[in-house]
């Protein structure tokens, strides 16, 4: 390309799809032993975002530039784009950095070595049409072979069978889980009922013991009273 830098690719190709952003990149390579400053311009700055749009390429090194096209609401006629990009390159002082770049560096003057490269934009359909199979007539949709149809039907049947088996296994698993849940609930209720009956039995035994002791005590007091009365009468 030039004596200062080489640019790859020489055309900017963007996959084009309505209402979606698209990006492409290019590589700038410094072919000299000097520092080279570059700047990227476009005829449609509102449509594209360039990062970085300027910078320093060190001697013998490369720099990648990414260009992003904003989402477009409509496609251009025949997918032809008239946008252009201009890359300017100029020798910079040794040790220069991005902060040292000024607009005046890219003004053409006598004795200043500067190169300019123009790149055009090409749109590529994001979903290109599939090629027409050989032997098919123009205007006639291609026919799928019997082998392909057989494979498609077989795959569909396999998927359907797999889904049915999965549903059956899932139904069986839920049935087992529901049965175990019911059994657990029944066991808990029975355990609670047994505990209640055991408490009632303990209370009955306790009451019966308490009642028997009181009756015996009354009988003994009565006999003692009779014996004392008998002894008093004899005396």
Descriptive report:
With 235 residues, the chain is of the alpha+beta class. Helix content is 38%, strand content 27%. It has 1 helix and 9 strands, in the order βββββββββα. The protein has one helix at 146-234, and strands at 5-8, 12-16, 22-30, 35-42, 48-51, 54-57, 62-69, 84-92, 114-125. The strands form 2 sheets. The protein has a 5-stranded mixed beta sheet with strand order 2-9-8-4-6, with no helix packed on it. The longest helix is centred in the last third of the chain and has 89 residues, at 146-234.
Concise summary:
38% of the residues lie in helices and 27% in strands. The chain is α+β, with helices and mostly antiparallel strands and 235 residues long. Strands 2-9-8-4-6 form a five-stranded mixed β-sheet, with no helix packed on it. It has a four-stranded antiparallel β-sheet with strand order 1-3-7-5, with no helix packed on it.
**Radius of gyration, taken over Cα atoms and rounded to an integer in Å:** 49 Å
Helix count?
A: 1
Poorly predicted regions: none
**Beta-strand fraction estimate:** 25-35%
State the distance separating the first and last CA atoms: 154 Å
- Average pLDDT for all residues: 82
Task: Describe the largest sheet.
Answer: 5 strands, mixed
Spell the H/E element sequence.
EEEEEEEEEH
Strand order of the largest sheet: 2-9-8-4-6
Indicate the topology.
Blueprint: E1 5-8, E2 12-16, E3 22-30, E4 35-42, E5 48-51, E6 54-57, E7 62-69, E8 84-92, E9 114-125, H1 146-234
Parallel strand pairs: 2-9
Antiparallel strand pairs: 1-3, 3-7, 4-6, 4-8, 5-7, 8-9
